[in-house]
Amino acid sequence: MKPDIVLSHIGQLATLAGHSDAPKTGQSLQELSIIEDGAVAIKDGRIVSVGMTNEVMSSLSEEPVLPPIEFPNMLAIPGFVDSHTHLVFGGSRENDFAMKLAGKGYMEILEGGGGILNTLKATRLATQDELRSNAFSYAESMLTSGTTTIEAKSGYGLDVENEVKMLQVVETLRNKLPSEFVSTFMGAHAIPPEYKDRVDNYVELVINDMIPTIAEHKLAEFCDVFCEEGVFSVEQSREILNAAQDKGMKLKVHADEIVQLGGAGLAAEVGAISADHLLRSSDDDLEAMAKAGTIATLLPGTAFSLDTEYANARKMIEMELPVALATDFNPNCANESMFFTIALACYKMKMHPREAISAATINGAHALSRSEVVGSIEPGKRADILILDCPNPEYLSWRFGINLVHTVVVNGQVVHTKLGP
């Protein structure tokens, strides 16, 4: 076997192997399956061998196409999987930020025409090329910061034409960046102004027009709903999710972010892959999620941007809930960095560094139904690998606020590397 490339003499190689069938829970979140002086052989974009450098090199029948690249005193981990973003949108929201600093809450800003409705106007006015240019810039920044798989939601168009436009933008990004993109339809993200007093009519539009159109054109793998007081009730959310599931979409739920409405319990009931946010979910609903195998995707960047309490990660881990971490990159939370997300998870949600790495890689892959392809460094998986300029997993959280990426490998290709030695 003649590999294309070998990454060798890696100080610590955190493979996160052995959890592709089911996400990590409890104590296993801390198990990174680290190999000292590790190596990874890659051919045709796939990992073909993983182990200690002397073992991998001796197993090769031929020299690799390119000379082996050495990374002593560095840490290798799987590419980050950001399983919750709102990547495509028009405009920006620095004015909303100023209102937040003046003491206005999320729902106050929304009711005043800011928030999602502000972005709605900008997104509807933007051309597909303008949206693509913005989304490309954000996704490229994420890639150079180690995110190799990105979930991207619609939800700022809120009519058939503009929801389709947003998801078409995601499709075009697949041909422009090496990152893997996973599309999610979220027409139930807010009530557009033209339906302010006719919420049930808007739910009918989502069910009868948006979902069939999105499904017919195969524009989204997942459907998500903002199940929240003042947005979509549990009953309305259930109707939308059931309709999407009938059309072959997998399910996600924005749950219990502002109030304890029951979104987490709904996610368990309908068999959602994940329930996200979960700042105020009840213990009963979290228990239901654990029994259903629904992943708890936590978004500490959102709590940071809203200056509110954080989800209780420690309780969820003790309940054996599978926990994932994601940025929730959006106009209200302009967080493109999984490094910052991991740091917040450790400092504010009391996750251990190794738990946070598991949550940002293999469990994020499970939250996108991609665990057989990405999320760990194992033979047969796509070679999405980060070489980090740090000696061990704990260092990654300790040195927060910077990009520790030395080299990014996506699908077996070096797509970004740090200048200098």
Number of helices: 16
Provide the CATH topology of the largest domain.
Answer: TIM Barrel
The number of domains? 2
User: What class do helices, strands and sheet pairing give?
Assistant: alpha/beta
| Main beta-sheet strand count, sense and barrel state | 8 strands, mixed
Task: Report Rg.
Answer: 21 Å
Summed over residues and divided by their number, the pLDDT gives a mean of 96
Overall, the morphology is globular
Number of beta strands: 16
Overall CATH class of the largest domain: Alpha Beta
Beta-strand portion reads 15-25%
Named CATH architecture of the largest domain: Alpha-Beta Barrel
CATH superfamily of the largest domain: Metal-dependent hydrolases
N→C terminal distance? 30 Å
In which range does the helix fraction lie? Answer: 25-40%
Uncertain parts: none
Provide structural commentary.
The strands form two sheets. Strands 1, 2, 3, 4, 5, 14, 15 and 16 form an eight-stranded mixed β-sheet that branches. The chain folds into two domains: 5-78 and 376-417, Urease, subunit C, domain 1, CATH 2.30.40.10; 81-366, Metal-dependent hydrolases (TIM Barrel, Alpha-Beta Barrel), CATH 3.20.20.140. Helix 9 runs parallel beside helix 10 (283-292) and helix 13 (338-349) packs across helix 14 (353-360). The protein is built from 16 helices and 16 strands. The chain has 421 residues and is of the alpha/beta class. The protein has helices at 53-59, 94-101, 106-111, 115-125, 128-144, 160-173, 199-216, 234-246, 263-270, 283-292, 300-306, 313-318, 338-349, 353-360, 362-366, 393-398, and strands at 5-14, 34-43, 46-52, 69-70, 75-78, 80-82, 147-153, 180-188, 222-227, 250-255, 274-277, 295-298, 323-325, 385-388, 405-410, 413-417.
